[in-house]
Specification:
The chain has 400 residues and is an alpha/beta fold. It has 12 helices and 8 strands.
Length: 400
């Protein structure tokens, strides 16, 4: 009995040593005990069993560590509530998908009624602060009429999509939103996964370029009337605040706002398009008002039409530049902009940075539309300025 008790004590101590991952902490006495062949054999059997159990436990842990992609149940409006008429040439349905951060996004999917086989697909988003019932839906439905399966989606934290708190923006998460749309499209049985493109409008034009620089599944990108949201947040409109002191003042204001909001337990909205419209408002602000604040483009879920982003909602753009590697985009890019758009400098500079000195400039194009303003490329304006024939040809050429 004394020998058995001694064996059990030694084995327990040795197993404890094993869990320290070092036998240096074991006593010399234990090593002496291990010279007994019976104890040595018994310990070897127990250690082997213990290792086997550990391996099995590790396998279970590894299996449990695989996180499932789970979609949140969203409340989606099923009746037609767009700012444009419903087409009789396409089928429409609401769909949802999940981005890499676990946020469930809501989208309208448009499919040609005469569709046959696997189709080329296009994901559309924008403008910045709008919802899929506005411009992006119009682009998506029109391209579906021309033979593409399309989705127009609400970005994270906005519209019918998930994400809390509401009305926040992020250069990372919003770029991911486009890539998540590609995830969704590439797994549909009705889509040819090798023929997927994207369209970004306004601030989402810059984010579309950012996604195209990162996601090689995107074979063609259209950028319409783009903003560079990092640039406008850091430098102000027309780079009028491009100075250390101006940026520091923004940082101070946003930092103080964060303290205020945390203390009060609630976020404050920054306001959408100004209303009432001042008589001396710049023309581009009047153009925004004419779209977002009138029956032409107003929508109840649109931040721009109502109370806008949270005051701190775009803070990250102040310190996180996008478009750093557009020169390395190998896929085709078409940029369209109006000659009268206040935002034209964003498009011109982005195109220059993407093409100058690039080995992949041959399939890049900047199309400037005479007479068109920024908002004319939202819904065509009074002269149908959106060059849908050009977009159709571009995607047919590059999604093949």
């Amino acid at each position: 009995m004394a020998l058995i008790r001694k064996m059990i004590t030694s084995i327990r101590e040795m197993i404890t040593c094993r869990f320290t991952d070092s036998f240096y902490f074991c006593s010399r006495k234990n090593f002496a005990t291990m010279k007994n062949p019976l104890i040595l054999t018994l310990f070897a059997l127990i250690a082997l069993a213990s290792c086997t159990q550990t391996k099995e436990q590790n396998t279970i842990v590894m299996d449990n560590s695989k996180k499932s992609i789970v979609k949140q149940e969203l409340e989606l409006v099923q009746e037609w509530d767009k700012t444009f008429p419903k087409s009789e040439k396409v089928n429409h349905q609401k769909v949802t998908f999940v981005n890499r951060y676990g946020i469930t996004l809501a989208a309208d999917m448009y499919t040609p009624k005469d569709a046959d086989g696997k189709l080329p697909a296009i994901a559309v988003c924008g403008p910045f602060g709008a919802v899929k019932e506005q411009c992006s839906g119009l682009y998506a439905q029109t391209m579906a009429e021309r033979g593409f399966l399309t989705i127009a989606f609400d970005p994270s934290f906005t519209g019918e999509s998930g994400g809390e708190p509401r009305r926040m923006a992020s250069p990372d998460i919003n770029t991911e939103d486009f890539m998540a749309a590609v995830d969704f499209l590439s797994t549909l049985s009705t889509v040819d996964a090798d023929r997927i493109g994207i369209i970004g409008i306004c601030g989402w034009g810059g984010l579309a370029l950012n996604a195209a620089a990162l996601d090689t599944r995107i074979k063609a990108t259209v950028v319409s009337t783009m903003y560079n949201m990092s640039r406008v947040n850091a430098n102000g409109y027309f780079d009028s605040e491009d100075s250390d002191s101006a940026r520091y003042a923004k940082r101070v204001a946003l930092s103080q706002q964060r303290t205020k909001e945390y203390a009060q337990g609630a976020y404050e909205r920054g306001g959408g398009v100004v209303d009432p419209l001042p008589d001396d408002a710049p023309q581009f602000v009047k153009d925004y008002y004419a779209y977002y604040k009138t029956p032409r483009g107003y929508h109840a879920r649109s931040g721009n039409s109502n109370d806008g982003w949270n005051v701190t909602g775009c803070q990250s753009f102040l310190n996180q530049p996008i478009l750093c590697y557009t020169k390395e985009i190998r896929s085709a890019v078409l940029m369209i902009h109006g000659s009268e758009a206040h935002s034209l400098y964003f498009g011109k500079d982005a195109f220059r940075d993407m093409t100058e000195g690039s080995d992949y400039a041959a399939n890049k194009e900047l199309m400037i539309i005479p007479g068109a303003t920024h908002c004319d490329l939202y819904d065509g304006g009074e002269k149908d300025f959106i060059p849908f024939d050009k977009l159709q040809n571009f995607f047919q050429t590059n999604l093949k």
